[in-house]
Structures are given as structure tokens and as C-alpha cells.
Design brief:
This protein is an alpha/beta fold. The chain has 21 helices and 29 strands. The strands form seven sheets. It has an eight-stranded parallel beta barrel, surrounded by six helices. Strands 17-16-15-18-29 form a five-stranded parallel β-sheet, covered by helices on one side. Helix 2 links the parallel strand 3 and strand 4 (57-64). The chain binds flavin mononucleotide (FMN).
């Protein structure tokens, strides 16, 4: 078979271990942790799905090596905790039995102990230990590790690596990046020691070297050690790429794979996990530069999800391995699809940060476009139905499409009706906003998957009661979505107003000075896009906060972009009327102000199409309502409900 992406699909030997391709599953942590800090069954199932999806290696995330000085976030691997070794063994087995190499990330959060705790108050009960004493931005005192403690931590890395090997892991990843303890030692920003662990670069690297030696001593030669580092810390005062190269050179003899990531969790979250506002592969240059200076294989990652781009990275020698985290949440089968030339079927990550926000908010996993994530134990296979039903899905947005695909996979005869001439629903509007283009692409991909699954698609077809009754269906899934809210504000129906959902069709109407009326998520993102297009943008919001409903990871990045793009923000402004000169608003004291702009973008929210729903609810034996037509919400909810409505038939 001729592989479309031969370099990406090519096996690689690292240490004495053969990996089936160049696509590795980057560490993603640790939500289903038992009270004893071992790996629960749900997490095991989560990692297993990555292996089933074809990743060459699956790294389970942060096993903390020295709970006595850490206690931050994830699993412990030790012999004292009942169930610790066995839980790791079952996880290694679950990964290995699908032909993937099981790896475990060994970590210590150092002065950032407590970062991952869902209940942030608990961090006050921990001691925060770092290379140097100081005070964290959140006011917590950091204590300096003594040389005796350093020696204990170094030994703990080796001890954990040995237990990991015993549990059946075939590789270990030592986490030396993202601002955690080893990174803190490497960094001139965090490390002010005057002993053999501080000062010169050779001294700052010593801790990492000792850790790697301790691990090597236990695992032996040929057992791959992957070292995760930040190629540059990417903040002022941190080390840069020139130093990153030197660090790599000083460590390469001790490692089998140098994994080059970027930045720090605490001081650059949106570059460590490149946000939708950054280009794909924005951190690849760091790995590419380091690769020029070392002889061990190098891995890269960060916002990668396009096989063509990843193929180019390997083919041109920028890296030997690509790693993905979010892309494999969105589509755990991505490597398998690449291997079988089915790249057009890949459901791409939207970089919406639902995954990381859920993790921080509720200690669970969820992905907007993959309804299985975090729910793997509930079943990952779509099982055929024992009786074929005739199913009508009303509405071709993401929820309707997901429902149609799932119902068709179950063997039902599925008709999907869409009242407009194009599928995708609300996602159609995203095609005009480059940083949200993947949301538009989601509709395109789901349409392809629906057609391939045998769904009959009827465009320009409104579903009425009579229509459903004539079709005589067994099941009706109502996914008719929502419509823009355009209140009866004087002037809002004028020619100078573009409803945000229609912007993609009326882009040319938009002048150089724009008022975006409504500072919810859609309004904020439209404002950023328009400012990026070089327009003067005013953003008007009645509430005192912008986009309060945006998730806790995306929102701070969104607000940063608003500032960076010099958008004029008017919160606490109530729009009274739209004129040719802009929007007249009242401030909190009731005083009127004109917010100037020749074009007004109306982004005042969405309203569920309840009337349509109410007309249809009695039209079939099984009726489900999903997504925005129930309550305007997120793509995440629409996709999840669509999937389950189809399973419930
Ligand atoms: C849900 C989630 C959890 C993560 N947890 C960890 C972790 O525990 N340890 C770690 O080193 N990196 C963690 N990461 C970071 C990823 O390994 C990766 O470096 C980052 O997401 C950038 O890669 P991506 O753009 O392919 O997602 C996590 C990422 C995500 C999305």
C-alpha cells in the first residue's frame, strides 16, 4: 500500500524499542485519580483509546515522584500505596495490548505544588518547595530545597522509573519543561542558588542530569528515556532558545528522545498549549533549531493536527517524532486514519480549551467534538441496533450531523433535513474568521462522515408536522438550533447592521470603523477578527464583563487578544438606538454616548427555535430534542446530545 504520508507513518527505533509510526500521544492528565492517588479505571480506558487509535506511544501524565515535597496533582507510583503498582500495571497493559508503547511521565511540580488541585484552597495546606526561596504570584511562600532533599528527589525519580518498568512501561518521560521543578532549576528566573545547583548553566543543569542518571541506573541502557523540555521559556527573565540549545546539548548523552515543548504553564499557558489565535505548529521552530545541534531524535508538538504539516515536519528533518495532545482528544483515531490514507475523515481539534477548562473546573475530561472523551468506560463502540428504524433528523448543524452519523452507524435508515442550502448550521459563519476556521471545517467533515455512513441528506427542506407524518418515521431527532436575537432596538434593522451569523456573507458591507454590539463570546471573537483585519473596533456590552460564559481557559486568552488588538471596550453600556454614525448607548448613570462606527455588528445572542420544536414533539414514537433548540449553548453540548439521542433510539 502506498502511504499518503510515508514519513509520518514510518516506524522509528528509539533506544531498543520499535515504535510503529511517528505519532505519539502527549501526556494528558490525570483526572480520574483515586483517593489513594492511583490511576482509576476511567483514566485507564482513556489512555487505552489513544492506543487503539493508532498512536505509536501513549504517555500517561504526571506521576509525581516525591509526594513528601510535592502533593500537587497526579498519581503516585510507590509500593506503600495499596493498589498503586497494580493500577499502573493494568494501565500499561491496556496501552500495550494495542501495539502502542506505554510510557509514564515522571514529574515534580516544585514551587508550583497545588496548581492542579480542583479545590485551590487546598494548596494552602501544602508546602511549596523550589530551587530558591521566594513568594509566588498568588502570595504563597516558596521554601528552598536543601541538598539533602534534592538527593532524595533525585533518588525518587529513579525509584519511580524502576517501578514503572516493573509495571510494564516500556519508556519513561522525565518532565523537564513547562515551569515544573526541573524547569525551575534550569531557569535563571526561578533558580538563584549559589551552590552547585545554581549560577552557571552547567550548575543549573546538574539537577536534570542527576535525575536522568538516577533513572538510567535503574532502567538500564536501551530503555528509552524521553526528556520533555521547553525549548525556550518564552518570557522575560526566563531562558531563551540559545540557552535551550545549550541545555539540550548538556543533556543529550543521557536521553534517547528530546521532546521540545515551549513556555511555562504558569507564565504562558497559551503558548505552551497554543491557542486558536496562534498558527498551527507555532512551536516547531524550537525543536527544529535544537535538532540541528544534537544527535538524538527530537520530538515536537503544539497545535499540530494536520497530517500534511506533520509529514512536512518529519520529511524536512525539523523533528523525528510529532506529539499531539488535543488533536488526539478530538479524534483518537487520527493516527489510524493517517496510516490508512483516510485523513479527510479526521475530526480536528478546535483549540476551544473545553478539555483543559473541564479539567480545571470539575476534574473531568471532555472534548467538544468527541463525545467519548471522559466517558470511555460507558462504551466506545457504536453497537448496531437489533431493529432497523427509520430516523429523521431535523437540522444539519453539528448536533444534528453527529446524531445522523451515529444513528446510521447503528444501522438505521437516516434522513437528515436542513432548511437552508448548506449543512453546518451556526458553524457556517466561522468560515470568515481564520482563527475559527476549524469550527467551519467541523461541519464539512461531519457532512462527509454522514454521507459516507449512508445518511440521505435533503437540503432546502423545512421539517413540519405534516412532513414528519408523511415520512412515517420511527424516530425524530429535533436539532433545529437557534436564531440570532435581534431585539426591537431602533435602527437595528438598518442597512448598516450585519448580524454576526451572516458576517461571512456580508463581509464586504463592513466599513472601517465598526461597533460590535454585544460582548459575549461571538461578539468578542468577531471584534478580534475585525481588528486583525485593520479596522477600528468598538465593543459594546451591557454587563460589566466581557464573555462571562467563555470557558475559564479560553476567556483570559480572549481578553488578552482584545487588549492586544486595541479594541475599544465599552462595558456597562446599554445600546439605545443605532444610527448611521454608530450606536447611542446609556452608561450606568443613564448618560448618553455615541459609540462611533459606520457598520454595526449585531452579536446580542441566540434564541432557541422553540416554536419549531413545539410543533414537532408529537410527530413520532421516539422524539429527542438536542442542542441549541433546547437552550442556546455550546457545540460541546450539541454534539454530546446528538450522539446520545442516536444511541437511545
Ligand atoms: C487536557 C490536557 C491535559 C494535559 N495534561 C498534561 C500533563 O498532565 N502533563 C504534561 O506534561 N502536559 C499536559 N498537557 C499538555 C500537553 O501534553 C501538550 O504539551 C499541550 O497540550 C500542547 O500540545 P497540543 O497542542 O497537541 O495539545 C495537557 C494537555 C491537555 C489538552
Amino acid at each position: 500500500m502506498q502511504r499518503k504520508y510515508p514519513n509520518l507513518c514510518k516506524p522509528i527505533k528509539i533506544g531498543n524499542v520499535n515504535f510503529r509510526n511517528r505519532m505519539f500521544s502527549a501526556p494528558m492528565g490525570g483526572t480520574d485519580i483515586t483517593v489513594d492517588c492511583t490511576i482509576g479505571r476511567a483514566s485507564t480506558a482513556f489512555y487505552e483509546l489513544r492506543a487503539k487509535g493508532g498512536a505509536a506511544a501513549v504517555t500517561i501524565s504526571e506521576c509525581i515522584v516525591h509526594p513528601q515535597t510535592d502533593g500537587s496533582h497526579a498519581y503516585h507510583l510507590d509500593l506503600q500505596t495499596v493498589g498503586s503498582l497494580s493500577s499502573f500495571t493494568y494501565t500499561a497493559d491496556a496501552i500495550s495490548r494495542h501495539g502502542s508503547i506505554a510510557s509514564v511521565e515522571l514529574s515534580h511540580s516544585g514551587q508550583y505544588a497545588g496548581t492542579y488541585l480542583t479545590d485551590k484552597d487546598k494548596k494552602y495546606g501544602l508546602a511549596q518547595w523550589g530551587p530558591s526561596a521566594g513568594v509566588r504570584p498568588d502570595g504563597l511562600e516558596v521554601k528552598e530545597l536543601t541538598e539533602k532533599m534534592i538527593a532524595e528527589i533525585v533518588a525518587a525519580y529513579g525509584n519511580c522509573a524502576g517501578l514503572a518498568k516493573r509495571a510494564g512501561f516500556k519508556m519513561v518521560m522525565v518532565h523537564g519543561g513547562h515551569g515544573w521543578l526541573i524547569n525551575q532549576f534550569l531557569s535563571p528566573y526561578f533558580n538563584h542558588r549559589t551552590d552547585k545547583y545554581g549560577g552557571s548553566l552547567e550548575n543549573r543543569v546538574r539537577f536534570a542530569q542527576e535525575v536522568l542518571d538516577s533513572v538510567r541506573k535503574v532502567v538500564g541502557h536501551g530503555f528509552p528515556i524521553e526528556f520533555r523540555m521547553s525549548g525556550s521559556e518564552l518570557f522575560e527573565g526566563g531562558y531563551d532558545l540559545v540557552v535551550g540549545v545549550e541545555i539540550a546539548k548538556l543533556l543529550e548523552s543521557r536521553v534517547d528522545l528530546l521532546h521540545v515543548s515551549a513556555g511555562t504553564y504558569q507564565r504562558g499557558f497559551s503558548t505552551t498549549h497554543p491557542s486558536m489565535f496562534l498558527p498551527h505548529g507555532s512551536n516547531v521552530y524550537l525543536a527544529a533549531e535544537i535538532k540541528k545541534h544534537v544527535s538524538v531524535p527530537v520530538a515536537t508538538l503544539g497545535g499540530l493536527n494536520d497530517p500534511a504539516m506533520m509529514e512536512e515536519i518529519i520529511a524536512t528533518g525539523k523533528a523525528d517524532v510529532v506529539e499531539m495532545a488535543r488533536a488526539l482528544l478530538a479524534d483518537h483515531d487520527l493516527p489510524r486514519k493517517v496510516m490508512s490514507n483516510r485523513d479527510e475523515d479526521i475530526v480536528k481539534c478546535l483549540r476551544c480549551f473545553t478539555c483543559m477548562a473541564e479539567r480545571a473546573a470539575t476534574s473531568t475530561r471532555r472534548c467538544t467534538v468527541n463525545p467519548l472523551i471522559g466517558r470511555e468506560l460507558d462504551g466506545t463502540e457504536v453497537v448496531p441496533s437489533s431493529r432497523q428504524c427509520k430516523v429523521l433528523v431535523a437540522g444539519g448543524g453539528p448536533g444534528g450531523l453527529e446524531a445522523a452519523i451515529t444513528a446510521a452507524k447503528r444501522g438505521h435508515k437516516v434522513i437528515l433535513c436542513e432548511q437552508s442550502d448548506q449543512l453546518g448550521g451556526i458553524l457556517k459563519g466561522e468560515q470568515a474568521i481564520p482563527f475559527k476556521y476549524e469550527m467551519y471545517e467541523l461541519g464539512v467533515t461531519l457532512e462527509k462522515l454522514a454521507r459516507d455512513a449512508g445518511v440521505e441528506i435533503r437540503l432546502n427542506t423545512s421539517v413540519t408536522k405534516e412532513y414528519v407524518e408523511k415520512e412515517n418515521v420511527d424516530a425524530l431527532i429535533i436539532a433545529v438550533g437557534s436564531e440570532p436575537l435581534v431585539p426591537a432596538i431602533p435602527g437595528l434593522a438598518g442597512d448598516n447592521v450585519v448580524v454576526v451569523n451572516d458576517y461571512y456573507m456580508e463581509k464586504d458591507k463592513v466599513g472601517n470603523e465598526v461597533v460590535v454590539f454585544g460582548g459575549g463570546l461571538a461578539g468578542c471573537e468577531a471584534a478580534i477578527h475585525l481588528a486583525q483585519e485593520g479596522k477600528i473596533v468598538h465593543l459594546v456590552e451591557m454587563r460589566m464583563e466581557l464573555a462571562p460564559d467563555a470557558n475559564i481557559r479560553h476567556r483570559p486568552i480572549l481578553l488578552e487578544e482584545i487588549e492586544k488588538n486595541k479594541i475599544h471596550v465599552h462595558t456597562g453600556y446599554k445600546g439605545l438606538r443605532v444610527t448611521e454614525e454608530g450606536v447611542v448607548c446609556a452608561d450606568e448613570a443613564g448618560e448618553e454616548h455615541l459609540v462611533p462606527g459606520t457598520t454595526v455588528i449585531c452579536a446580542l445572542g441566540q434564541r432557541a427555535r422553540r416554536k419549531v420544536v413545539e410543533d414537532l414533539v408529537d410527530c413520532a414514537p421516539y422524539v429527542a430534542q438536542i442542542g441549541d433548540c433546547v437552550f442556546p449553548s455550546t457545540i460541546t453540548i450539541a454534539v454530546y446530545q446528538g450522539y446520545h439521542a442516536a444511541l437511545d433510539i
